[in-house]
């Protein structure tokens, strides 16, 4: 146990561990650095002393014993976006709770080729597995060319024979949004889509199309842009929306821009046009009006991803796919179509 004195709690030193194990402090250092020329009985005695005295976190001691780093390398595509950022934070939290650390490498929105550099950097850190968050098609094409020998999991909505995958059902989330609008009597529903290189953007657009087709409705205006509020604002300010009575935005930032742009034109939300977003940002309930949106449970996604990563590290080699269902959150930005 940690030492105590008149000065209060004291963290044990390498010398305390050495005394407990009956070895020199240099031997303790060699054990901690994985030196091969250490008798197993000595190594076991040092590791036991490390555990008993809490000299280092128990996860590190276990890593020394198992020859694993207990570290997961994460490639995060578009780190400034809400979904990728929240997924990374959720994965980090879930990993900490089971004694794993996370090393992240961010790939800029305009340079998927950074993936090569990211993979090399993470592999040289000795990670046990790789995880790719919010991939674009271009980054996945590059990832397929990599041969790291490490278990790899990709956060994406569709199964992929190349990797373990886990994701939120993006297509169903879009269908929830569009079904809600159809149920309110809307018949001309526009979609402001994210960049089509992003797999999530593609899935949301397909869900919009499928739901309209099932209801026997024609597609409303379809405009592809980026993930920003400026995109939504620009469309709402400058485009002729014709008979559109509802807009499904590919994320909440776009929806925020749409509401602002419509307001500047004197078009009321939801009296004249209803608006639905996607993600359920923490501030979405404070938009004016509060935003109807589709919620992704990033905490559950992080835990599920970690479960798959650990299973892969422990030898589960056949690719698996797990899906989390999104949920529609109805607020005040949608209403029955006006007569």
Automatic annotation (TrEMBL):
An annotated Gene Ontology molecular function: DNA binding
Keyword list, A-Z: DNA-binding, Transcription, Transcription regulation
**Organism superkingdom:** Bacteria
The record ties this protein, via SMART domains, to:
HTH_LACI (SM00354)
Task: Using the record's annotation, list all stretches that form the HTH lacI-type domain.
Answer: 12-66
One Pfam entry for this protein is Peripla_BP_3
> Any idea what this protein is called?
DNA-binding LacI/PurR family transcriptional regulator
What species does this protein belong to? Microbacterium trichothecenolyticum (Aureobacterium trichothecenolyticum)
């Amino acid at each position: 146990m940690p030492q105590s004195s008149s000065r209060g709690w004291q963290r044990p030193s390498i010398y305390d561990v050495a005394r407990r194990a009956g070895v020199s402090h240099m031997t303790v250092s060699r054990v901690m650095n994985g030196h091969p020329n250490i008798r197993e009985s000595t190594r076991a005695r040092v590791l036991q002393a490390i555990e008993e005295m809490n000299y280092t976190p128990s996860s590190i001691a276990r890593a020394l014993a198992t020859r694993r780093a207990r570290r997961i390398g994460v490639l995060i595509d578009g780190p400034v976006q809400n979904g990728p950022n929240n997924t990374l934070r959720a994965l980090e939290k879930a990993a900490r709770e089971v004694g794993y650390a996370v090393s992240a490498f961010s790939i800029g929105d305009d340079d998927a080729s950074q993936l090569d550099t990211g993979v090399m950097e993470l592999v040289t850190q000795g990670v046990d597995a790789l995880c790719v968050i919010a991939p674009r098609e271009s980054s996945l094409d590059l990832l397929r060319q990599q041969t790291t020998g490490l278990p790899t999991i990709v956060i994406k909505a569709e199964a992929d024979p190349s990797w373990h995958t886990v994701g939120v059902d993006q297509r169903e989330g879009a269908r929830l949004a569009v079904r809600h609008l159809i149920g309110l009597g809307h018949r001309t529903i526009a979609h402001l889509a994210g960049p089509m290189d992003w797999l999530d953007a593609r899935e949301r657009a397909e869900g919009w199309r499928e739901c309209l087709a099932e209801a026997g409705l024609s597609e409303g205006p379809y405009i592809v842009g980026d993930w920003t509020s400026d995109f939504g604002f620009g469309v709402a300010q400058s485009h002729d929306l014709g008979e559109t009575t509802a807009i499904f935005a590919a994320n909440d930032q776009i929806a925020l821009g749409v509401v602002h742009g419509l307001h500047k034109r004197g078009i009321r939300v939801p009296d004249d046009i209803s608006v639905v977003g996607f993600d359920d940002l923490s501030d979405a309930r404070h938009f004016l009006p509060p935003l109807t949106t589709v919620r992704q449970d990033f905490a559950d996604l992080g835990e599920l991803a970690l479960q798959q990563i650990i299973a892969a590290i422990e030898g589960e080699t056949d690719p698996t796919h797990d899906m989390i269902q999104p949920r529609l959150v109805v607020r005040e930005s949608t209403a029955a179509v006006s007569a």
